[in-house]
Every structure is written in C-alpha cells, then in structure tokens.
Amino acid sequence: MNTSNSVNKPKILVARAIFPEVISLLEQHFDVESNQADHIFSAAELLQKLQDKDGVIATSSEAIPAALLQACPRLKAVCNQAVGYNNIDVAAATKAGIMVTNTPDVLNETTADFGWALLMATARRITESEHWLRAGHWKQWRFDSFLGADVHGATLGVIGMGRIGQAIARRSIGFDMQVIYHNRSRLAPDLEARANNARFVSKEELLRQADHVVLVLPYSKESHHTIAAQELAMMKPSATLVNLARGGIVDDVALIAALRDRKIAAAGLDVFENEPALHPDFLALSNVVLTPHIASASEPTRRAMAACAANNLLAALLPGKDGELPPNLLNPEVKG
Ligand code: GLV
Asked: Ligand 1, residues 61, 83, 220: which to mutate, most atoms within 8 A of Cβ?
C-alpha cells in the first residue's frame, strides 16, 4: 500500500508491521510502502519491492543476502529493527555502498530481564508444573513434587559478555551468585567488577563449572554450533542451558538428545534453528521451556527499537547539513 503521494521524497519499504505512529513519522519524510498486514515477503517479493526503494526497515525475519543487495540499484540504507544483524550480508552491503544499521542498547535491560525469567522458569520447572496443573493432574500436594535447581548461590556462566551479558550478570548480585564468563576478549576490570566480579574463563572451564549457562553471543560463522554434543557432554548433569541469542548457536539435534538422556537437566530457549519451524522433538520434552523469540518484546522496548530504526533511516537518507552518520551505523567505511 502506498501511503504517501509525494514525488520527491526518498522511497522506503517498511518490511513488517510496525507501530502506526512510526509509519506516520516516516511518512512526513519519505514515500512509504508499508506492510501493516504483516505478510512475510518471499525472496522474490522482497527483490521486487526493493527495486525502486532508497531504504528499508527490516527485521531479523528478512534475509538480506549479497544477491539481493547487488540487485537493488537505488538502495542506500538497510535499517534492522534488532540488535542482531546476521540476516544481512554487511560486507556485501559495504561493497555495494549501502549503509546498515541495528538497534543496540535500547533492548539491553529488557532482554536481560527476560534471560532471568527464562532461567528461573527453567531451573524451577515453572511451565512444566503449570502444564501439569492445567491438565488436571494435581490431586494432592507432595513434598517432592517438581524438585528443581537452586538459582541463588549457584555459579552463573555467561557466554558472550557484551552489553546484554553484562546486564544479566549484574542482576545475579541479588541472587548471591558467582559469575564466570567467556567472550571473544576479556572485559576491562571496571566492567568485570560491575558484572558481579565476573571471572574470565575458557569455554571448557565455564561449561564444566557453571550451574546455569546463558548464551548471549552474536551469531556468525564462527559462533555456529558453539554448543554441540561435545560441549553438552562437558556440562554438569544438573545444569541448565538458556539460549537468548540466535538459533544456530546451539546444535538443536544434539540438545534434544542431551535433554532426552538427561545429560543436562533442562534448557530454556527463546531462539531455534530454522525458527519458527522449530524441531518437533522439542515439543515432546518436559524439561525444556520454549518461547517464540520474544526476549526484547516489552511494549516500551519494542517502541524504542522501532523509533531507533526510524531515526537511523532518517539520518541515513536525509543527513543534516553536517552530514552526520546514522547513530547505529555498522559499516561506517561505506561513507569513506
Ligand atoms: C533480537 O533477536 C534482536 O537481535 O534484537
């Protein structure tokens, strides 16, 4: 649907449904093609829609590969409404002179809250016991029903100690936990101190020592299957695993086997390989908490992410007289 009739404004596509006030804001500056029906575009449809567009607001459900970027002659900016951007070939965008932006920071605390919700639900068997109750099985209270793992006083292992990982670690102070972490590089001492005196360890040490392992690292070729059968075998049989990051960081088939054979106690998963078509065997397991990729989905945070993506697009396509770069430009080399 073309919602603006202006001739000279840059043309943009908003690829998924978004808050109406963001469409209104964008329409003040751009000729906007929106998708409030929230139809999922096929690769061919996206290619066709981007032929005459200067910019696009995308989400992590739109794949933006090199072939697409090279085939859209007018495209100057791809603004992702997510902190992760593994759906976009940034190197190809840079080569094609296209700016790429994401929405960092605005979602750190909300995502960290959700990491804790998932960790607590997993360790204390909240969804499993609720399903059992709803199914009418609760005939009498038992002293040993749904025994779970303690969170307080336990060792928290964070793999990927960026801003969200640090926010998760900070919350563990109230639970009197020890924090160990693994990351591409060690944090500065003041950041480690704020993150509940987190101790930098190897991935192997983390997997062997942690009672609760939380994954918050970005997805890339290098982080593909960071947790596979070999890693799951290193974990304690009483341990829980929480994946808040991206599908593909965990080998889901190996995780299903580990959960089924009780090689680890339980998992809490917000992201999956090939989502939303997650592996059907997850559904048959009682020791896994499953959520549909909603870690940043609080009302204020989703509004903030949408506003952040819109501001990035405004700065990319309509720079001020000083030519400021979009605030969250991932490939500044594109501007020379
Ligand atoms: C959500 O998954 C994000 O990357 O923001």
From this structure: 83
The rounded distance, in Å, linking the Cα atoms of 185 and 103 is 22
* Spatial separation of the C-alpha atoms in residues 13 and 46, rounded to whole Å: 9
CATH numbers and ranges of domains, the chain? 2-104+299-334 (3.40.50.720), 108-290 (3.40.50.720)
CA of 116 to the centre of ligand 1 (A): 17
Model confidence, pTM = 0.95
Q: How far is the CA of 83 from the centre of ligand 1 (A)?
A: 5
> What distance in Å separates the CA atoms of residue 294 and residue 82, rounded to the nearest whole number?
12
Q: Kindly state the helix (H) or strand (E) to which residue 133 belongs, with its residue range.
A: helix 126-134
Q: At what angle do helices 299-317 and 108-123 cross, to 10 degrees?
A: 140
Q: Which residue lies with its CA nearest to atom 4 of ligand 1? A: 84
Catalytic residues: 246, 275, 293
Task: Label each residue of 259-326 as H, E or C.
Answer: HHCCCCCEEEECCCCCCCCCCHHHHHCCCEEECCCCCCCCHHHHHHHHHHHHHHHHHHHCCCCCCCCC
State the Cα torsion 219-223-225-227 to the nearest 10°. Answer: -100
Query: What are 266-318's pLDDT values in tens digits?
Result: 999 999 999 999 999 999 999 999 999 999 999 999 999 999 999 999 999 99
- In this structure, the residue with its CA closest to atom 3 of ligand 1 is 82
